[in-house]
Amino acid sequence: MIEYIEYKEKQEVITMIRETENLDPKALAKELLNDRTHGAAKAGAGELQKADAFAEGYKAFMNAAKTERETVTWAVQAAEAAGFEPLRPMKMYQPGDKVYYNNRGKALCLAVIGKKGVKKGVRIAAAHIDSPRIDLKPIPLYESSEMALLKTHYYGGIKKYQWTAIPLSMHGKIVRKDGTEITVNVGEKEGDPQFTITDILPHLGKDQMGKTLGEAINGEDLNILVGSLPLTDGEGEQQFKLNIMNILHQQYGIVESDLISAEIEFVPAFKAVDIGFDRSMIGAYGHDDRVCAYPALEAIFDCGVPEYTAITVLADKEEIGSVGNTGLASEFLNYFIADLAGGEGWMAHHVFSQSTCLSADVTAAYDPTYASAFEAGNSCYLNRGVGVAKYTGSRGKGGSNDANAEFVAQVRKIFDDNGVIWQIGELGKVDQGGGGTVALDISRLNADVIDVGVPVLSMHSPFEVVSKLDVYMAYKAFKAYFLAE
Ligand code: MN
Ligand code: MN
């Protein structure tokens, strides 16, 4: 039987109001209303300094790992240095054992076995390591009007006009027919050449400027400039294309058809830098979602021997719907848990049904310049700590996970008990649009899931902005969650 708290009788309510008339409204507000103290004031100088130190490590990571493949390579190296070993399926692990599973160099699961093993459930922090970018088409190289260019197919949700007239670098992998692999990275090292997508000058931009922002640049306009000299003195067929192919052949030993079996990504060549006279923020390409991946990694490295088994997942393909076998809609996390559970004689679903997960993904930070897109009272703000979202989605929570109240209560207690500065918010106004995360992919496995991540300005642009304090609070949040009893 449900036991409700009966609402008071009319006369009781009237008496109650009279009795509270002499209360101090200030004291009452402090007791009853949400704390609106600014994050910097809550944190104090000591925490702000720790946040700044944490940001230095984060910026170095951001410059070293700009794609999902580079992030997995970086993370595996860091994990091995921290004592992690490749997972041996069905092995009976002991508390404190550290294992990882590298899924095709593009996604990664890491676990620190807790004192309770996995049979009482695990704690998962799941971030994604792919970001919006410019991919190459299978037959990319062509020449036109004495220039060599690459045809592209953009990846993820971008505002295409933002990707013209900025410096780009090339990252990725080419696999020859015989299986030999070439890893490429051009444009990041000091002295490297860089690349760019051209735009029309304003003097001649009349037609373009008359279009809407969404139509001004279309997908077929995102062509990357890679050369402007012919192979010889201009004699013969396709001398401009041939000159570039010849350089690539000399450099990498590849022919044009090798680009068919390649994953080449062009990303902004910007380095991560401090933003603001007060140096309180970080500007970089791809904060979404490496700004959650890095704290989730550092948290699992620093969690000692936790009570419950701690798991950090770094997933690919979130930006295009978590598809493919390296995205979280695949079963790879399920199999990872099954392999751990098997060692203790359990099935994966026994573990998942008692597990919880922080879906570690960014949220939109309130931007006063675009205030009309946000509902000010339910938005996340820069410097107010790590952002919690009970639900995401669009058109009435469509495509969201919508965490259970019981689990939300657990999470806020963990954060409050451990000095984590946090806030809750929605991604913009109700009917303004929306977005999704990996939360629903993990909730499908019957775990309790909530979104927890860093608020971002200019999300999905080539140069996103976050606050150092919020990044550090994400780290504190994931660590506190892993260590909670
Ligand atoms: Mn994201
Ligand atoms: Mn995104």
Percent helix, as a range, is 25-40%
Q: End-to-end distance, in Å?
A: 31 Å
Q: Oligomerization state of this entry?
A: single chain
| Bound compounds | manganese (II) ion
DSSP strand tally: 21
Rg, alpha carbons: 25 Å
Counting H and I runs of at least 4 residues, what is the number of helices? 13
Which consecutive residue ranges, at least 5 long each, have pLDDT under 50? none
For the largest beta-sheet, the strand count, sense and barrel status come to: 9 strands, mixed
Structural class: alpha/beta
Question: Can you give the mean pLDDT?
Answer: 96
- With strands numbered from the N-terminus, the spatial order across the biggest sheet is 1-2-3-14-4-15-19-17-18
Brief write-up:
The chain is α/β, with parallel strands linked by helices.
Structure characterization notes:
There is one protein chain. The protein is built from 13 helices and 21 strands. A hairpin with a 5-residue loop joins strand 7 (168-175) and strand 8 (181-186). The mean pLDDT is 96. Helices cover 30% and strands 22% of the residues. The strands form four sheets. The protein has a nine-stranded mixed β-sheet with strand order 1-2-3-14-4-15-19-17-18, with helices on both faces. It has helices spanning 10-19, 25-32, 39-64, 68-81, 206-209, 213-216, 239-252, 287-301, 332-343, 348-352, 405-417, 439-443, 468-483, and strands spanning 85-86, 98-103, 107-112, 122-128, 133-144, 147-155, 168-175, 181-186, 196-197, 224-227, 262-268, 273-275, 281-284, 309-315, 356-359, 363-364, 386-389, 422-424, 448-453, 455-456, 464-467. With 485 residues, the protein is α/β, with parallel strands linked by helices. The structure holds manganese (II) ion (2 copies). One manganese (II) ion is lined by residues 288, 319, 460.
